[in-house]
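User: Fold this, then the next.

Assistant: Folding the first:
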Amino acid sequence: MERTLVSLLCLGAVYLRMKRRRRRSKWVHTVLRNRRLHGEFHRLVQELRLDDAWFQHYFRLDKSQFDDLLTKVAPRMHRMDTNYRRAICPAERLAACLRYLATGDSFRTIAYSYRVGHSTVCGIVTEVARAIWDCLVEEFMPVPTTEDWRAIAADFSQRWNFPNCLGSIDGKHVVIQAPNNSGSLFYNYKGTFSVVLLAVVDAKYCFRVVDVGAYGRTSDGGTLANSTFGQALRDGTLSIPEDTQLPGAAYLGPQPHVFVGDEAFPLCRDLMRPFPGVNLSPRNRVFNYRLSHARLIVENTFGILSSQWRMYRQVIGIRPANVEACVKATCVLHNYLRRSTRTRREPVAVSAGEMSVLQDIRRVGSNNAAREAIHVRETYASYFSAEGAVPWQPMA
């Protein structure tokens, strides 16, 4: 009898909840039905096609780049019409995603302007971002081969006077809204919540390796150690070229190819960081100056990325997994634009005074390193103060 009474009470509660639930008054809202007449893609975007500069300001891509990108990703975004509604075309899906990446506006703002549902925009942005990464990564951010590493080292030697350099490495905190039930995992030292973008950049401001999704509380060194790139660097499976003699210093013997980073990274045979401390010898100050000159390439690249895609200027209020998809999409689009744009402005070189200020900003880090790594850094320091000296460096 009691069980029957409890069951009846439960059924009654469910019935009352269903009765109180607001019934859906319209299958598709009247405003959304007029999408093809008054939606931003069907009106404003088509007018912007008449002006190249305005179109590029709107999407960060010119018309030819937009159309070329559409041909690459359209097969991944095509949807079939149904008896109830017409599908959103791939071009409109791509436009909504690029608009979000370019402005960082909320999904609801884009939903109103494009006259689609809020949840629809959320699904479109994530889906298109993943499609952009999958369709472009093999062509514009492939895994570097030995020949690729040699070409990068040649560019660093020619453009930035750092021989045997394979890339500049650093981490960027992408600010996000605190995920539910995440505790302090995403809370970083800057007092915000973030995921980390770890990147290796070549001498031409292009991303060569990216790792996205590490917790904001993790240091750059810890992010490197936990990343696939860091594990490959530690295991020696990166296809790094064999040791090569430094120009004009055959007596020093073959030296390893290295990545350059700041004080947050550990000193390794294949990864150079500055000498720690303030009262340094002239020789060590020259090394820090030359290393900072090459390392700032990744800082400049992050600046280009965040100025091009204003998503990075906002607090991103989506799930970390979707943030990862958007960040990877902007990185591969950055390479796509760098290699397909004919004219572009190179970042201004840092002056000697600015470089000295940057060198005074130091973070405390561990100074534990293997003897081989210490020997490699000492060799580079000696080289930069002798055969490898350049007129614009500080006097040793």
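Now the next one, as you asked:
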Amino acid sequence: MVKKLIVDVDCGVDDAQAIMMALAVPDVQILGITCVYGNTSVENVCKNVLRVLKVCGRLEIPVFKGVSKSILGNVLSAGHFHGIDGLGDAPDPDAPGLELLQKEGAVSAIIRLASENPGEVSVVSTAPLTNLAVAVKLDPTLPQKLKNLYIMGGNTDARGNTTICGEFNFAADPEAAYIVLNECVCPTYLACWEFTCHSKLSWEFCDDWLAQDTHKARFMKKIFKHSMDACYSERMEKELVAGQGFISCDSYAMAAAIDDTFILESDYKAVSVELTGTYSRGMMIVDHLEILQKNHKACIMKKVDLEKFKELMMNSLK
């Protein structure tokens, strides 16, 4: 059975890796890619997605420009881990132009595509959740039309990667994350920050992955160099846990959407987002005591099949 996806991205290098992973799977159909601010400006995100699609020979997939800032109008800096342009500051003079974007906006596209395929479409979000949150507010029936929702975002142990207690995608727009987690009652799967750190691959695998003699691998090596250099520097200077292995954060959420058997262990818990804490704004709340009394429980990934993950990653660059 064909798996129909809407992919919502803030296309940095790991978003590109996730998109390429999905494009390499025959029974996955990407109905559209919606772009939102995050790792870089929404204009750069649109350019980056078009570059990825060109490399994969899939420019027929529609790309939609979305929201440029959070619901409250704030923009949280993602730093420059993925480069200022989001793809390692490795420009392509022959990159596709923005005239290839659809005229329709991302929020409208999410609502339309879900309405045209009720119960058949899953959303994979690897970015701040602003596009999806606005879509839910404009069409409160949207969650009932979605098959599944896969999110890279949030955190389970109050360990932030951008703020003290917040993972970037949630901290960038806490209100949007709150809306999505509390109003999207479709089956929801979370690849949280700490989980990705505990599910890292070796740098030796990364070397083999990039050494494939293909156009896609050469493209990935070019755009990934900036991030790999940053990881190497951090590993030498600070010995960070995240620097001790290869983490393609967004690809875990995509792998779960592609392969139902990818998730080996998980917790089903009610979740929400802190909106007002001095230090904890944007932190994901996991209701272990069931104080929230919510019927809808999210699937929080704990352990996944890393051999299947490696295979999906390798195939993405073939």
